[in-house]
Amino acid sequence: MNSNDISEIIEADRAHLWHHLIQHKPFESVDPRIIVEGKGMRVWDAKGTELLDAVSGGVWTVNVGYGRESIAKAVYDQLIKVNYFANSAGSIPGSIFAKQLIEKMPGMSRVYYTNSGSEANEKAFKMIRQIAHKRYGGKKHKILYRDRDYHGATIAAMSAGGQDERNAQYGPFAPGFVRVPHCLEYRRQDGAPVENYGEWAANEIEKVILAEGPDTVGGLCLEPVTAGGGVITPPEGYWERVQEICKKYEVLLHIDEVVCGVGRTGTWFGYQHYGIKPDFVTMAKGVASGYAAIACCVTTEAVFEMFKDDTSDPMNYFRDISTFGGCTAGPAAAIENMRIIEDEGLLANTVKMGERTMKNLHALMDKHRVVGDVRGKGLFCGAELVADRQTKEPVDEKKVQAVVAECAAQGVLIGATNRSLPGLNNTLCLSPALIATADDIDQITAAMDKALTKVFS
Ligand SMILES: Cc1ncc(COP(=O)(O)O)c(C=O)c1O
After folding, report:
1. Could you read off the pLDDT of 234-259 as tens digits, one per residue?
2. Which of the listed CATH numbers 3.40.47.10, 3.50.50.60, 3.40.640.10, 3.40.605.10 matches domain 70-343?
3. Of 52, 142, 216, 381, which is most buried by a Cβ count within 10 Å?
4. Which of 114, 118, 262, when mutated, tests ligand 1's pocket best, judged by the most ligand atoms within 8 Å of its CB?
5. Which of 118, 174, 121, 181 is nearest to 148 (CA)?
6. Does the pTM exceed 0.85?
């Protein structure tokens, strides 16, 4: 691309684009970064700068890396055959991908296609609400969500959003969503025990159910590993107890795998580390690694059956549609994405490289007092920065952003919790593609090392 073309593109961007998650004003004097090419773990911007991408497209999405011609070809072949038909009818890639996906999810049975993580979560919320109406006279309609979790950007998804800074100024929210406490061991709540913290944190959910009335609570929506809320890996004993509580009070368990799904944590799904039997699993980002938009709300045969048990009732089915849930590019890309993960052994690589990342992050913690805690599962890791290890006072957010900027200046893109939690946007995040090599991981953590030295000395 010649420099005239680039200037035109930058001008058009400046004049007409409203970027996601960016506060535009402070960047008015800086040229917007335009990504023009990607290959493997790396992207190039319009100025020719090469960047090692440790965040899979910024928001943990491009799981199989950039430049996958076989996915592009699968999408092309499908699009020239038939690009779209509403999902009230079937499609060849839609059926094939559903079957392959369910094979990876013992206990699950039905796939509902849609086009974003937020929307997939809303499908589960709507199913839970409809079950409440069908079975419990509408009473068992409340949906519990957890402090620090995120489930999407729509008003209903934000009503189930545990990130107060993200939600600020967008209320009022929908009724019927109730918050339960987070389970971040490093920031145990006042009065929480050091021993058996996982069980304690799960029991807090039970307390909320009892306070609300078990006959009013229909669902519990949780991330298996909390992503944007600070890469929170669950404490030991947590999930076992959560599962028991859901069973005891007939609360449907909805696992939001929008980030963890399709390999990110080293298993096909994050919940599979913990022996959980969910009623709903939602997924989006890694399903087709961003090569096409696709999201799924997956449920069990038992849930599906509840929507067809009374044929005399004309309202007795899920009266919902997602227009772009009928796009065939999504499942066509998803089939090839899954084949790549399998054939290239990317789950095993994720485990191995995840261990290396954690080892390197622990070394950073040994060297830099500002690193208060490191957490991770597979290639999904975080480092929480604190001004004081004793009090755990978070560092100033500007310094967290300075570390991210310093890494970018060294050609490495890392992430950080961003305008999510009041006073607690202090976790650096890594989610490189599942193809990462040892050299890539070492380059990423070496950049962090230099950046931490520069910003905090
Ligand atoms: C855990 C989780 N759930 C849901 C969503 C929403 O997905 P989408 O942006 O595709 O609507 C996100 C997005 O980051 C997420 O991290």
Report:
1. 999 999 999 999 999 999 999 999 99
2. 3.40.640.10
3. 381
4. 118
5. 181
6. yes
